[in-house]
Amino acid sequence: MKNYDVRDMSLAKEGKLRIDWAGKEMPVVRLIKERFGREKPLKGVRISACLHITTETANLALALKEGGAQVVLCASNPLSTQDDAAAALVDYGVPVNAIKGEDNKTYYKHIVTALKHKPHITMDDGADLVSTLHKDYTKLAASVIGGTEETTTGVIRLRNMARAGKLIYPII
């Protein structure tokens, strides 16, 4: 069963070269990936992430996978998606649902696909994943143990949810 949606899998070879190049400029992520490879601290943990699909994010996702996590990605910004990196991640065994320039309907379809992964942890950039989870998948949100948010806009949205008593799980 196909668990990804990317523009063109023939871009994977180029994407792998660019991911490798970016990884050489990310020594801390490389060290974490090596450690995770030995220790497997995330074994069995499901992570759904709505992030910029770039070579840098690819290195993060591969480090999490090396640590034993089952990672599914979707795009937080369709205009920043690097289609070659998305295809390469799929080839590496990380399901990605992101297409550069995807329309709004496809964007939210991809978010739902990431949520169907039934995450234990969410990683978000802008809080669209978490907002959709809390709005349309509240039963699923109850099984999430925590998450991350990386943008000021997302933090503002999440703080408003927390003040309203609607944030179901902790997010850093």
Structural class: alpha/beta
Number of H/I helices: 8
**Are there runs of 5+ residues with pLDDT below 50, and where?**
none
Order of helices and strands: HHEHEHEHEHHEH
Strand order of the largest sheet: 3-2-1-4-5
The rounded Rg comes to 15 Å
Query: What is the terminal-to-terminal distance?
Result: 33 Å
Mean pLDDT: 97
Helix content: 40-55%
| Main β-sheet description | 5 strands, parallel
Silhouette = globular
Please tally the β strands and state the result.
5
Strand content: 5-15%
Brief write-up:
The protein is α/β, with parallel strands linked by helices and 172 residues long.
Structure overview:
The protein is built from eight helices and five strands, in the order ααβαβαβαβααβα. The chain is of the alpha/beta class and 172 residues long. The protein has a five-stranded parallel β-sheet, sandwiched between helices. The protein starts with 11 loop residues before the first helix and ends in a 9-residue tail after the last helix.
Q: Which descriptors apply to this entry?
A:
172 residues; alpha/beta; five-stranded parallel beta sheet; 5 strands; 49% helix; 13% strand
SSE map:
Blueprint (H helix, E strand, L loop, with lengths): L11 H13 L2 H13 L6 E6 L3 H12 L3 E6 L7 H9 L4 E2 L6 H12 L5 E4 L3 H9 L1 H4 L4 E4 L2 H12 L9
Parallel strand pairs: 1-2, 1-4, 2-3, 4-5
Helix pairs in contact: 1-3, 1-4, 2-3, 5-6
